[in-house]
Amino acid sequence: MVQSSVLGFPRIGANRELKKTTEAYWQGKVSVEELLKVGKEIRANNWKLQKEAGVDVIASNDFSYYDQVLDLSLLFNVIPERYTKYNLAPIDTLFAMGRGLQRKATETEKAVDVTALEMVKWFDSNYHYVRPTFSHSTQFKLNGQKPVDEFLEAKALGIQTRPVLVGPVSYLFLGKADKDSLDLEPLSLLEKLLPVYAEILKKLAEAGATQVQLDEPILVLDLPENVQAAFKTAYKFLGKQSGLPAITLATYFGTVVPNLNAIKNLPVAGFHFDFVRNPEQFDDVVSILNDKQTLSVGVVDGRNIWKNDFAKSSAFVQKAIEKLGKDRVIVATSSSLLHTPVDLENEKKLNPEIKDWFSFATQKVKEVVVVAKNVSGEDVSAELAANAKSIASRASSNITNDAAVKKRVAAIDEKMATRAAPFPQRLEEQEKVFNLPLFPTTTIGSFPQTKDIRINRNKFVKGTITPEQYEQFINAEIEKVIRFQEEIGLDVLVHGEPERNDMVQYFGEQINGYTFTTNGWVQSYGSRYVRPPIIVGDLSRPKAMSVKESVYAQSITTKPVKGMLTGPVTCLRWSFPRNDVDQETQALQLALALRDEVNDLEAAGIKVIQVDEPAIREGLPLRAGAERAAYLKWAAEAFRVATSGVSNKTQIHSHFCYSDLDPNHIKALDADVVSIEFSKKDDPNYIAEFQNYPNHIGLGLFDIHSPRVPSTEEFISKIETIMKSYPAEKFWVNPDCGLKTRGWEETRLSLTHMVEAAKHFREVY
Ligand code: GLN
Ligand code: ZN
After folding, report:
1. Separation of 561 CA from ligand 2 center, angstroms?
2. How far is ligand 1, taken at its centre, from the CA of residue 566, in Å?
3. pLDDT in tens, 97-151
4. How far apart are the C-alpha atoms of 562 and 543, rounded to whole Å?
5. How far from 615 is each of 308, 394, 504, 572, CA to CA, in Å?
6. 477-511 residues labelled b (16+ CB within 10 A) or e (exposed)
7. Which of 6, 396, 591, 733 is the most buried (most CB within 10 A)?
8. Looking at residue 446, what DSSP letter applies?
9. What residues contact 287, with CB distance under 8 A and at least 6 apart?
10. Mutation test of ligand 1: which of 446, 608, 658, 741 has the most ligand atoms closer than 8 Å to its C-beta?
11. pLDDT tens digits for 20-54?
């Protein structure tokens, strides 16, 4: 029999129980016992659901109260001293490391004030992990035994699981040196770390685990020689230990082929590879297996929500069986299902035709089982027939296919993706229109999304206020924001985005070809979950999406107001994309929809238009090479298609955040002005990298994630530092990002100080 395997299941609960309880715990509203109980229930439900579906290899230790990488840091005692000194309970240490902790002193406890560890995107997903942070004083030792506890918990329910841990090489490689130990190379700690890995694996074996899954996702990156060699060191060490469970080494989100040498001849029981992303790696990876090693064939997509094509997956697995025999092949999800929503059955409002094309985590579990049964020769003809029908219906649906859109994309040419004149000439024409002072000030778009705004939006959605009443409310909000900006003396204004629930969803809801879930939550980090819209078909804009609000805002002020749009790459990246059409095509379809919007804004008298692309960096393919080069080309092209339909006089802005940007990537967009998140970048080289950026740029001057208000002097000193290496005539003054999560009080003060600092420099220069 061919076995089935799920690499990990979402941990948030079918109704976001984990979020609700965790946040209540942070607010002191529920006890730690209650929080632990909810965690235990979620784990039990997840295991039972998989067991009942007939999954053979079920993961444990895939659960976390915050992040699985952070769990490992806690387990291995990789806890910087600034967190241990408060003697917090383990779970509070975990949360303090994940999100920082500020607590006033009480009669019994002293005050706590510690910031979070760095949080980074997990490969090319929208999940964020907490970066392991090592110092010279790091002493690896087991601190608790979470993987063993959870294994035993499942065992007590009669469910044998395969514990999963991030493997030693990836764990170190994904970490960094702490501020006090910058000369430390994390990978140099491998030999000290390995005995502790062996110890936890041994404990798992003693508890009854026969297998473990060690995730080494860094194998899909470009790895230097020493990192490749570390795999041999690590797995040979583990291979020499007696009494460990059988190890499956798992990779996902890419191809391992360039790193095959790193994993050839490793003494592990088997490998898992992602064949959804990279089916073409099959022959190469099979060639390195010895004659006992198993192959876990990832064919059910852990990163998207489309129904699996059983015929296609079965044929693929069959190929593996022919080479290796049934006993050595396992049908699996491509990665953990962490990146997919929990259960499609919770969607009550989806169009049934479309719903039939989807599969969320709960459904994917069953898919793995059906494919395994099918290739084992069991009769699953009913499932196969139903599946073939859904696949065919999607392929031929007129929801997915729009001939007019296809035709328009095919007609895109270089001219459409190029502004009428190069930047210097545009600048000259724009200067005449705007006549801005040196150090022009602006913000990134949103202003505080107050409770009042959310209440009124809900009323509007529910129909308890009329569209006219809602419009009046929104206009009053816009007016408030405009008057405020005038009052404090900002130069280029925004309308504040009060009408938007989310920067992608707001546009997605107005674009044909998108659909939305009501409960399709996916963990982004900690207790923050997102509900990505789903691109189901060819994308087009039936009518203007943002013109009304921008025109109103511009009508009540003489200062320029920026039209504000979300760019094509960000709309694509923060959605579940189609898997039947390539990403480039989807980005270009979005680009055309946005181009129409940009042109409409211009025609309606809006002279500055900002098209945000905060997700452009995360879309970058993980490896250097042809795919990355192609991405850079089409991502920039999509942006330029969206923004090049306007005259030289119209000023195009763009904005980026959440990542370390490469100025060359931004250059290719040819926006007149860009603003980037900058306030927390303490690396002086990062400024220098932007020195030669040809167009105008605003380096974000304050952190919008924090309620902290920088003083005017602080702004001045920040700008002074930047001015040491930066030309004043190119420099804009702005915050890091939008202000929607901030309160009004701190927003008022911070922006006032920022504008004062700009005025100071106008006198100096
Ligand atoms: N214009 C958006 C805002 O200000 C940009 C948000 C973002 O970059 N994440 O909210
Ligand atoms: Zn931003």
Report:
1. 18
2. 8
3. 999 888 889 888 889 888 889 888 899 998 999 999 999 999 999 999 999 999 9
4. 20
5. 27, 28, 11, 9
6. bbbebbebbeebebbbbbbbbbbbebbbbbbbebb
7. 591
8. B
9. none
10. 446
11. 999 999 999 999 999 999 999 999 999 999 999 99
Mean pLDDT of 206-229: 98
* 705 in active site: yes
Distance CA 141, CA 448 (A): 45
Alpha helices in 27-130 (DSSP H): 32-53, 68-75, 81-84, 90-99
Q: Which residue in 487, 447, 443, 448 sits closest to 734, CA to CA?
A: 443
Buried b / exposed e across 336-359, counting CB within 10 Å, b at 16+?
Answer: bbbbbbbbbebbeebeeebbbbbb
Nearest protein Cα to ligand 1, atom 3: 738
Residue whose entry in the numeric block shows the structure tokens 């979402």: 10
- The mean pLDDT value for 628-638 works out to 97
Ligand 1 proximity of 738 Cβ (cutoff 6 Å)? yes
Do 646 and 594 touch, CB atoms closer than 8 A?
A: no
β partners of residue 60: 163
Contacts of 454 (CB under 8 A, 6+ apart): none
Q: How far apart are CA 545 and CA 493, in angstroms?
A: 19
pLDDT (tens digit per residue) in 740-752:
989 999 999 999 9
CA distance 314 to 380: 12
- Cβ contacts of residue 637 below 8 Å, gap of 6+? 412, 417, 588, 591
Q: What is the pTM of this model?
A: 0.94
CA count, 13 A, side-chain hemisphere, 18:
25
Count, in order, helices (H) and strands (E) of the chain. 28, 24
Give one word for 16, left, alpha or beta, with left for phi > 0 and alpha for psi -120 to 50: left
The H or E element spanning position 747 is helix 744-764
User: Average pLDDT of 240-254?
Assistant: 97
Q: What is the pLDDT of residues 446-468, one digit of tens each?
A: 999 999 999 999 999 999 999 99
Q: Identify the CA nearest to 677 among candidates 614, 623, 729.
A: 614
Which tens digit of pLDDT belongs to each residue from 111-126? 988 888 988 889 999 8
